[in-house]
Please model this.
Amino acid sequence: MDRPQEGDVLAFSGSHWMSRLIQVATFSPYSHVGIVYRCPVNGLLLAESTTMLETPCVVRGVRHSGVQAHCLVERINSGDAVYVLSPWRMLNWPQANELTRAVHECLGRPYD
Model:
């Protein structure tokens, strides 16, 4: 796998029954996605909205169902198949900062 960069979308193909159900219902090999962003304190993280992780959000320090940030390396090594979908070009500094701002604004929102 290429090294993920800010703005990359990671698509997961999980083995949990709920992941398989999502894949069948959506006719997709993927069951879940998240976006890579840089947190000034924690480095590269994966922002995702989920109900299935036991680990707390590394930015807010709490576990909940909804938008959270998790350690990128831990999520890649979680056992699920991971596919990196990179944007056409790397984000520039203002775009990366805007992504971080937008993600942090969404952290804590409940899962729909």
User: Anything to note?
Assistant: Helices lie at 17-26, 72-76, 93-106. Residues 9 and 35 are 4 Å apart (CA to CA). Residues 9-106 form one domain.
